[in-house]
Amino acid sequence: MLFRFLFRRFCAIFSAMTHLFQNRRNFQLLAALLVIFGATLRVPGLGRALEYDEVWTLEHYVSAPLSVIFTDLAVPNNHLLHSLLAKLSISVFGAGVITLRLPAFLAGIAVLLLSIPVTLRLTRSRGVSLLVLAMLALNIPTLLYAQSARGYEIQFALLLAFAWGLLSLTDAHGRKSPWPAVFGSAAAAVGGAIASLSTPVAPLHDVALFGLQSLSALYTDDELDKLLQAGVTPVQLSGGRMCALRILTTRATAEGPEGESFRSLNATLVTDELLRDLRAALAARFRAAQNSTLTRTAIRSAVLLVLQDYRARGWLSAFGALRVYADAGDASLCRVEFTYSIPAGLHRIALSAQMTG
To answer: Which residues lie across from 323 on neighbouring strands?
Structure first.
């Protein structure tokens, strides 16, 4: 009964204030006050002691190199974008609890700001937009996520940004711009094709791209060669279905000189699988081991087994120069180094014929 009474009183007060929202300046002022109010509520908890998941994120991902952030997915505690932003925040503003939580806090403010255009697009009502904004400002879960060094608040902000982008495809006159949908559909189709691969060395040029219906332009062979050299993925119509001519990346270097090692996406996929399997194999066997000669010999054998398995599957064409040694500056650090090569896929066949006689 008390809740019903309070709810009715709230609705009556809200209805009486509806006329205030008709004025754009009043609406903007109230929205700004609610955003400031919500941001203020999220400030006090930023300096509290770190929780277990936050400590894990700091020690295992934020403090690690960028290559670890984007390849260590053995446990679901690594929120990639948050780990990257937290690392950037600490590198710019210095180490601290608040700087570690700064990306989540800013994402919390972004959630409040993005809720305004999304609700306005959905309902065309300023009153509803302010009501949703007030509820988000006072919502306990979103408030706590904005005070925690985790990626949930960033995910919420990106979800609202994505919804706003979809709603913005239609302008005030109901006309739609096709290009965002075209590029988004192509990216989603390529991503779905990559996710459907049974092995990381499966050819990526003959995978159907579902959701694409037609082509917008035709390119000559010379133009296609230039696109492929630049790391662009052209799409073609083959056998009545849409597929990629060759799926590439723009990555041309990995902390070294420029090259073509990472141009093929298969190289990246195999590398991701290899590093993940190596980390899982080593973590399962050497959690409480000492950095002794005997342990390093066992580590070498474990790494060798994984590499041999990958070569037997045909995922690696060769490997060598396997070294396992103790770091000279840190006695607790064991370094594992090796070289490997990935078999090149057959993507194109160039025919040259000469008629004689």
So the answer is: 337
Check pLDDT > 80 for residue 198.
no
Residue ranges with strand state E in 113-232: none
Give residue for tokens 């007030």: 134
DSSP count for the chain of H helices, then E strands? 14, 4
Range of lowest pLDDT (162-166, 176-180, 254-258, 305-309): 254-258
Q: Which amino acid is at 343?
A: P
- Cα gap 125→119, rounded to integer Å: 8
Q: Which string of b and e fits 189-201 if b means at least 16 CB within 10 Å?
A: bbeebbeeeeebb
Can you say how many angstroms the Cα of residue 131 is from the centroid of all Cα atoms in its chain? 31
- Please give the distance of CA 152 from its chain centroid, rounded to a whole number: 13
Alpha-carbon distance of 61 to 87, in angstroms, equals 8
Q: Give the pairing type, strands 241-244 and 334-341.
A: unpaired
DSSP 257-322: S--STTTBHHHHHHHHHHHHHHHHHHHHH-SS---SHHHHHHHHHHHHHHHHHHHHHTS-SEEEEE
Name the DSSP letter for residue 61. I
Residue at token pair 């109901």: 174
Report the candidate in 61, 56, 89, 59 with the shortest Cα–Cα distance to residue 73.
61
**Residue-wise DSSP of 210-250:** TT----S----HHHHHHHHHTT---EEEETTEEEES--B-S
CA–CA distances in Å: residue 317 to residues 161, 215, 275: 43, 36, 16
Q: For helices 126-138 and 24-41, what crossing angle results, to 10°? A: 10
Q: Is the separation of the CB atoms in 316 and 310 below 8 Å?
A: yes
Write out the two tokens for 18.
């509806």
Bridge partners, residue 241, by sequence: 238
CB atoms within 10 A of CB 35: 18
Q: Which of 99, 107, 84 is nearest to 153 (CA)?
A: 107
CB atoms within 10 A of CB 4: 8
The two structure tokens encoding residue 91: 């590198």
Compute the distance between CA of residue 50 and CA of residue 180 in angstroms, rounded to an integer.
41
| 85-116: pLDDT as tens digits | 888 888 888 888 888 889 989 999 999 999 99
For residue 204, count CB atoms less than 10 angstroms from its CB and return exposed for 0-12, middle for 13-18, buried for 19 or more: buried
